[in-house]
Structures are given as C-alpha cells and as structure tokens.
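MGS-like domain protein: structure, please.
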Amino acid sequence: MKVKRALLSVSDKTGIVELGKALQALHIEIISTGGTLRVLREANVEVTPVQEVTGFPEMMDGRVKTLHPHIHGAILAVRDNPEHVKALVAHHITPIDMVVVNLYPFRQTVANPQVTLAEAIENIDIGGPCMVRAAAKNNAYVAVVTNPGKYKEVVSYLQKDGGFSTAYRRQLAAEAFAHTAAYDTDIAAYFSQYITKGENE
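Here you go.
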C-alpha cells in the first residue's frame, strides 16, 4: 500500500526535519502538531496543521489536539471494509497511511528529584499513545514509527517502493506496542510511590 499521507508529531525532534524533507520530496502530504509543526515549517517543509484537519484548535494547554474522528478515523479505517469506506466518505475523512510519533519525556522528567507531581502529570502523553496504538492496531494498512533511529530505513523503503511490506508494518507495530508498554510501565512505577508512602488523598 502506497503512503500518501503521514502524521508527524514527536517530542524527540531528532531527525524529524530530514524525514519531513524526504517525505515532501516524495509528494507525501504531512500533517503535524505544535512544536513539530514549527520545526518543520522553519525548515521550509510544507505541513498541514492538525487543526485544519479536525476543524478544532489545539486546546487545554495542548491536552486536546489529535483526539478527533478526522484523525483516529483516518488511522483506524479498514480500507477494504465497505462500511468503513462509506463512513470515510460520509464524514469527509482522508486516510492517514503513516504515523510518526514519540511520546512526552516522562521518564526524563521524573528522573529530576525536584519534579513536582503536577509537572509529572503534564508529561503524561495522551494523544500520542492513542495514535501509536491505533496505527499499530491497524498495521495492515498503516505504518507506525516511534523510533527516530528508523527514519533512514523508512525513507529508503518509501523511495524504493512507495510503501511498506506487511511484514515490515507488523515489525513496526510490535516496536510501537513495546514503546507504549514501557511508557505506561514508567508511569505506573512513578505513581506506585504514592501507594507505598500511604498517600491516599
């Protein structure tokens, strides 16, 4: 399946400009959010803001931006299911073929002994894991990339074939689920300290 549309939203910006330029050269539409959008635009990469896709602004200090049917329907649609295709058409949803996301730096944040609970909570990513898990679930049609170290490999496949094999999408999905599992494990470990301290408020 050819990649025509990609969503890029990353905390770790390593290699994202190079990836964006490569996707643009391949005429792949790029959707992006917040800081990723700014970095790409500063590098003269053409990007569609996520709010133009959803019709809603980013709100609540960025807590809500990608949690919308025009994003998740675009990721989760089963492309050869007639009812899913009908829903895409009826609601003017254009499929997303690749999701490039890595998550807020929770582990690094809580490694600081001075971090407050409020600061830790604001570094719990919500939209990111939702997109990662949605894309990984729908790996039959969508590629999900969570590791910047994969960007060059991903670009090489796109330059050669325009898309990815089923086996490669499954490999990326496995890495994505491992990424979100490790992330949630870190969050659970952080909150467990309040249980062991007997803080029940």
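Notes: The beta strands are 5-10, 29-32, 48-49, 98-102, 143-145.
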